TrEMBL record:
This is Pentacotripeptide-repeat region of PRORP domain-containing protein.
Length: 155
């Protein structure tokens, strides 16, 4: 079984077995090529997270990932988010979880799946609510086969 719950009660996390990524699936940093404005916006995002202003942080993150000019794929954005979290002393898993939700809400299911796999591989758990949001996004986009596979991996 790929995923399991630790208790029968409604928990806030779904604990999953760690995903082992192949050696060629590492996140290469293209931080030097990211625009300086993105770095300042990510620092602002982490500051909002640190102050527990989650709605404002999510709104800022949504504007960053859905901007027309932001054509950077997830593997180049994730290291920049991690560096900003490390500099601001903000838990990276919380920021990555929010990124997973934002991608899902925006209908960017492929990038959301990348964020999910990274969350799973690095932290071994994903918030249940985030998985629900992702499933809803898959259903909205008529990706029933992906939705069914994702649900099976969570049982």
């Amino acid at each position: 079984m790929f995923a399991r719950r630790l208790s029968s009660t409604n928990s806030s996390f779904v604990f999953l077995k760690p995903l082992v990524l192949p050696p060629d699936h590492h996140l290469t940093t293209l931080a030097a090529t990211l625009p300086p404005d993105l770095h300042s916006q990510l620092a602002r995002f982490c500051s909002l997270l640190k102050r527990r202003r989650y709605v404002a942080a999510k709104s800022l993150l949504k504007s960053l990932v859905t901007a027309d000019g932001l054509a950077h794929p997830f593997p180049s954005l994730a290291p920049a988010v991690e560096a900003s979290c490390r500099a601001a002393v903000v838990p990276y898993d919380g920021a990555l979880n929010m990124l997973f939700r934002v991608y899902s809400d925006a209908g960017m299911t492929d990038r959301a799946l990348d964020a999910f796999e990274l969350l799973l591989g690095r932290f071994g758990r994903v918030e249940e609510r985030s998985c629900t949001i992702y499933l809803q996004a898959l259903r909205r986009s008529n990706s029933c086969s992906k939705s069914a596979k994702f649900e099976l991996s969570m049982d």
